[in-house]
């Protein structure tokens, strides 16, 4: 598995709009096991994105999907900066049902 954890900082007051744009392209990504967008409770403009993929190749391939490209195009103007970014090697996933 392949994982990513990263922080984005939205333009002031645009966090919810950025979150919606990021989430819009995430519903049908082959190989994506988990995609979580979360508000940073200590930063009014901060978002954390946590991704788990079955492979790094599928993550890279997702960037060429039309819905992902559209999501990136909508979100890019709302981003003030990128913060921490970490690649991880997930050991397992538990999913509540």
Characterization of this structure:
There is one protein chain. Helices cover 28% and strands 36% of the residues. By secondary structure, the chain is α+β, with helices and mostly antiparallel strands. It has a single domain, classed as Alpha-Beta Plaits, CATH 3.30.70.100. It has a four-stranded antiparallel sheet with strand order 2-3-1-4. Strand 2 and strand 3 (46-53) form a beta hairpin. Helix 1 runs antiparallel to helix 3. The longest helix has 10 residues, at 15-24. The two termini are 21 Å apart.
The helix-and-strand class reads alpha+beta
Question: Major sheet: order of its strands?
Answer: 2-3-1-4
CATH topology: Alpha-Beta Plaits
The percent of residues in helical segments reads 25-40%
Order of H and E elements: EHEEHHE
How much is the radius of gyration in Å?
A: 13 Å
Fraction in beta strands: 35-45%
Give me the number of helical elements: 3
The CATH top-level class label: Alpha Beta
Q: Largest sheet at a glance?
A: 4 strands, antiparallel
Low-confidence stretches: none
How many independent structural domains? 1
Query: What form results from the Cα inertia axes?
Result: globular
């Amino acid at each position: 598995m392949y994982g990513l954890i990263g922080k984005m900082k939205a333009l002031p007051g645009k966090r919810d709009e950025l979150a919606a744009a990021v989430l819009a392209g995430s519903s049908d990504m082959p190989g994506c096991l988990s995609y979580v967008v979360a508000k940073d409770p200590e930063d009014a403009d901060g978002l954390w994105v946590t991704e788990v993929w079955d492979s790094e190749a599928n993550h890279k391939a997702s960037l060429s999907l039309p819905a992902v490209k559209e999501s990136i195009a909508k979100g890019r103007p709302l981003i003030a900066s990128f913060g921490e970014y970490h690649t991880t090697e997930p050991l397992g996933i538990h999913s509540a049902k």
